[in-house]
Specification:
Elements: E1 15-22, E2 29-36, E3 46-55, H1 61-66, E4 74-75, E5 79-87, E6 99-103, E7 116-120, E8 124-126, H2 133-152, E9 161-164, H3 170-181, E10 185-190, H4 193-200, E11 208-211, H5 219-226, E12 232-236, H6 250-255, H7 259-265, E13 266-274, H8 283-292, E14 295-298, H9 303-306, H10 311-326, H11 343-351, E15 360-362
Parallel strand pairs: 9-10, 9-12, 10-11, 12-13, 13-14
Antiparallel strand pairs: 1-2, 1-4, 3-5, 3-7, 3-15, 5-6, 6-8
Helix pairs in contact: 2-3, 2-10, 5-7
Length: 363
């Protein structure tokens, strides 16, 4: 029989949390469980949360280094859902026993992969009653990323066309559902036969699914054909090839389009939303984008965490993601929930980007 941890406002509970440790060369990271000190007294705008579910996402160690956030042991797990145990004196949105969901900030000292965390109230929203803990934690970040890409960076509207690369990924799935909800025409790529079959079962149906698994499909040609030669209004990529065939790894060659293909398939006034943080555009590329009046935007959902000015918009997005989850607009790709003791091994798989469905730890 599984033992349950009981929490009280002043309880002295020893907890374990998951952290990662980076090697001296910054090439390898190791995940370790550490005993945690008791959480400090909840004060000011902070909320003490009993974690019920925490989703796992890749850790961007390069970004942490650039933000000077490196330390010997870094907390793991940021997408959390749980029950409010205690609130600080300045908290205005929550009270004990509220069910909430949110994303811990980059500089959080607490790992989400722990029985309890302390978090500022401005990173949390209420969880709808219909939504399970696993669904809430497993959807919150991909929902935020899809909103950032299609609403704030490309202003997708009814009747527009959008190419969503790797539509069967956890982000791609939510992005397709959001685009359909907005009344857009969706084209997507599939990286395997299984992904293709998954995308073909979408309702409402995807206008065209382009199977890139055999390396023979021409994404640009397919998009131009589907749009009558006009090109698509928005592209959300899942990475791109920057160089010639001889300079790229084999897996990139097969599944990712070249940057020239993306530029070719963009329509006049189009928006290219890229996840490629090291995108390099040569003068001819820029000139082609100029002639089309097209725009390039970088999808970095951490900007919401790094800017206090945008806090109101950020919370509005999180609330809307939860509302769409509760009404069935969003139907996330979630794997079976896993217990905390399996989090270390599962996180190693997630960090290597080897899983397709969202992994969520359930407490």
């Amino acid at each position: 029989m599984e033992a349950k941890v009981s929490f009280h406002r002043d309880s002295q509970v020893t907890m374990k949390g998951l952290y990662f440790q980076q090697s001296s060369t910054n090439e390898e990271i190791t995940f370790v469980f550490q005993e945690r000190e008791n959480l400090p007294v909840t004060e000011d705008n902070y909320v003490k949360l009993q974690v019920k579910a925490c989703a796992l996402s890749q850790i961007n160690t390069k970004l942490l280094a650039e933000m000077k956030m490196e330390k010997e042991f870094f907390p793991v797990g940021r997408e959390v859902a749980g029950i409010v145990l205690d609130v600080g004196s300045k908290v205005s949105f929550f009270q004990p026993d509220d069910e909430v969901v949110g994303i811990l900030p980059l500089d959080s000292e607490d790992p989400g992969l722990c029985e309890a965390v302390r978090v500022h109230e401005h990173y949390l929203v209420h969880k709808p009653e219909k939504v399970t803990w696993t669904e809430a934690a497993g959807t919150i970040r991909d929902g935020l990323r899809a909103y950032t890409a299609l609403h704030y960076l490309s202003h997708l509207s009814p009747g527009k066309s959008v190419l969503i690369m790797d539509g069967a990924s956890t982000l791609g799935t939510i992005a397709i559902q959001l685009a359909h909800h907005r009344g857009a025409k969706v084209i997507s790529t599939a990286c395997s036969l299984e992904d293709k079959q998954f995308l073909e079962r979408f309702r409402p149906p995807i206008a065209r699914v382009i199977d890139v698994s055999n390396g023979k499909a021409h994404v640009a040609e397919s998009c131009l054909e589907e749009t009558g030669g006009l090109g698509v209004d928005t592209v959300l990529d899942a990475g791109v090839r920057l160089y010639n065939k001889d300079d790229e790894p084999a897996e990139k060659l097969q599944l990712l389009p070249h940057k020239h293909d993306i530029i070719t398939l963009l329509g006049v006034g189009g928006h290219w939303v890229t996840t490629e943080e090291n995108l390099q555009l040569d003068p001819p590329d820029s000139h082609c984008l100029f002639l089309k009046g097209a725009a390039v935007a970088f999808l970095n959902d951490e900007v919401w965490n790094l800017s206090n000015v945008q806090q109101g918009k950020y919370l509005c997005i999180l609330k809307d993601v939860m509302e769409k989850l509760s009404t069935g607009v969003f139907r996330p790709q979630l794997d079976e929930p896993i217990p905390l003791y399996e989090a270390k091994v599962t996180m190693e798989v997630v960090q290597k980007n080897q899983g397709r469905k969202k992994q969520v730890v359930h407490f």
